[in-house]
């Protein structure tokens, strides 16, 4: 197979990622309710909290003192996990990519909801355990980055393991 033919699916994947990334960057809180609403429901369950949606702001949790808005939606993680899983699947030459890739995107969406809710709940609990002087914004961001990195690596390793067990091409 010619090299450019082999690279075409990856280029299309990167183009789709770039378009989605630009669209997400331009989105407002009200535009990402498909991520925010289910994430908020999971956070409510995990933290036994209630919230109210405020248009233009997000889900306000008055007792916890937090707002779940676009910056908490996990959209960048979702896009990156979709790209990573799709590229890994293509690289592993898994069977029937036309069926598998949409399923991997659905999986990355569900993973985004679960990981993001766990990240938010963890940040809230960490903030409750530590004295206020030890919970600056950088700690919240570092915790989020570590959680996201861990789950990206875990998702990639899991997909590789599943494909290796199922198809010996890896």
UniProtKB/TrEMBL annotation:
- Subcellular location, in the record's words? Cell membrane
Keyword Ligase listed? The answer is no
Q: Which residues form the signal peptide?
A: 1-25
Q: Which UniProt keywords apply?
A: Cell membrane, Hydrolase, Membrane, Protease, Signal, Transmembrane, Transmembrane helix
Can you supply one Gene Ontology CC term for this chain's record? plasma membrane
- Please give the start and end residues of each transmembrane region: 73-92, 99-122, 142-163
Q: What name goes with this protein?
A: Exosortase K
What is the source species?
Answer: Hymenobacter amundsenii
The lineage, from the top, is: Bacteria, Pseudomonadati, Bacteroidota, Cytophagia, Cytophagales
